[in-house]
């Protein structure tokens, strides 16, 4: 029979934590592994109440997550308790082990699967990216997460998905960028690798161009910001970024998972852009059927197949598979990528006219469809005529003004609906763009640098441009163009 000293030596050699707990839930004794797993010392542990014991049930194996404090990461333990033979003040024994890595890997895989389904099956890009951002926040040490997308010059920087931020966060960031502020995520995009920013609040508060976000940032309890680039075919199209809940560097597991989710978001955005391009191609009568088939059938099938292969690879990396099977997965990925490249190459050879070359009304409707598809903002284009013949340079100026007005409604107005009304009265063409958003204020500051450009084009047309906030709210931009000669059908 083992002596008490032999028994203790045996327990101290175990990798699992063992402890003796008194009737009030206080630690009386613990083995060496217990101190190591709980990251504490005998002086601090013995005599303290056991959080693990408070969550345990006799005869059951349960998990308990101890939340982070300070710079210590939250850990998850599997805990079991059992009765000890009567030994004075310690009637309970407790056994526990750290299962954080197993639980977190499972949570990450579940998050990846949920986001894959949302992206593959959903039609709302913003909703799918919001879900991606929320999944990142839920299973990592991130308190917030935003998916920023940058477009080629003229630079448009949009927040298409977010979690943990106020509803108007995208508008606040957009207002700062309109004032000349440079998004901090651009550094991650330039480097094409994750970037960690420490003492981050000061960066915002020291730059007056970021004044629009001060109200949110000033009182934040977090001060470490991480940005991970989103890559498509070797080029960055934006970044996934957020504040960490505690002031520490992200763990390697955090970065691996966030990078995978960033790639996932990039694939969704790239697919959405391809679909938008498909809408443009479909307008060409001689290419309608080919473009529609490519984008609505082949491209979507390849995209869904690529996501499923990514999921299989993630499962294989987690559970371990043979080298031969991983080679087969890599070959399948290569074939899908090759097929996708061939589809894109074919599409690139199809003539894409400038929108205004299609005619004023088809161009306006096309732009409205593009914004609706990308931002989920309903735009109702109303016109009693199908064809308005204008000289190409005049058609371009009218189109650019209307397109800028619709873009402003999407970016800054927080609108839920936009109406574009086109009328021809005698020798005048009138186009109005009305949204139900928050209005523009007395100085028209919401319209940023877009308004001078619109006025310049209006002057070139000899037209009148009126900007107003109707009594019912929102914003109305109206363009009245004199027509010397017009053919209306």
Helix content: 40-55%
CATH architecture of the largest domain: 2-Layer Sandwich
Number of helices: 16
CATH superfamily of the largest domain: GAF domain
How confident is the prediction overall: mean pLDDT? 76
Specify the biggest β-sheet. 5 strands, antiparallel
Lateral arrangement of strands in the main beta sheet: 2-1-5-4-3
The count of domains is 4
The separation of the N and C termini measures: 104 Å
Structural class: alpha+beta
Q: CATH fold name of the largest domain, please?
A: Beta-Lactamase
Rg calc: 30 Å
Specify the CATH class of the largest domain: Alpha Beta
| Spans where pLDDT lies below 50 across 5 or more residues | 68-72
- What's the β-strand tally? 17
Shape: elongated
What are the defining features of this structure?
16 helices, Beta-Lactamase, 4 domains, elongated, 5-stranded antiparallel β-sheet, 17 strands, 489 residues, alpha+beta
Q: How would you briefly describe this protein structure?
A:
The chain has 16 helices and 17 strands. The termini are far apart. By secondary structure, it is α+β, with helices and mostly antiparallel strands.
What do these coordinates show?
With 489 residues, the protein is α+β, with helices and mostly antiparallel strands. The chain folds into 4 domains: 4-98, Beta-Lactamase; 103-275, GAF domain (Beta-Lactamase, 2-Layer Sandwich), CATH 3.30.450.40; 283-352; 355-488, Histidine kinase-like ATPase, C-terminal domain (Heat Shock Protein 90, 2-Layer Sandwich), CATH 3.30.565. Helices cover 47% and strands 21% of the residues. It is built from 16 helices and 17 strands. The strands form 4 sheets. The protein has a 5-stranded antiparallel β-sheet with strand order 2-1-5-4-3. A 5-stranded antiparallel β-sheet has the order 7-6-10-9-8. Residues 68-72 have low confidence and may be disordered.
